[in-house]
Amino acid sequence: MKIIFKRGSMLLQTLVMCVIMAMIGVMVLKWVMARYMLSARIYRSNVAKVRTEGCMARVKSQWNFNPVSSNGSCSSDGVTTSYTSSSSKPHKIDFRTNED
Fold first, then answer.
1. Percent with pLDDT over 90 in the chain
2. I want to staple 52 with a disulfide (CB 3.0 to 4.6 A). Which of 64, 89, 95, 98 is the partner?
3. Contacting residues for 74 by C-beta, under 8 A, at least 6 apart
4. For residue 87, what are the contacts with CB-CB under 8 A and spacing of at least 6?
C-alpha cells in the first residue's frame, strides 16, 4: 500500500509544480506584453506629436506670405494632420492627427 501512496504523492507534486510553473510563465508573458504595448503606444504618441508640431510650424511660417484658411491639412509620411482656426481673440488653432 505504501508504494502506491508514494507514487500518487509524487504525481500530485509534479502536477502542482507544473501548474505553478505555467502560472509564472503566464505572468511573465503578460508583463512583457504590457511593456511592449506601453512602449508602442508612447512611440505612436510621440510620432503624432512631432507631425503635429511640423504642421503647426508650416502653417505659422506661411502666415506672412499667404492667407491661412480657417480649415486645412498638412501631409507628411502619408499621414494627414488637419487643423481648424478660430477667428476669436486670441487667435487659436487646433491641430489633430491620427496616431495609427
1. 30
2. 95
3. 54, 55, 58, 59, 80, 81, 83
4. 70
d(CA 38, CA 26): 18
Range of the domain at 77: 2-97
> How far is Cα of residue 10 from the mean position of the Cα atoms in its chain?
47
Count of positions (residues) in the chain? 100
Total tally of structural domains belonging to the chain: 1
pTM: 0.59
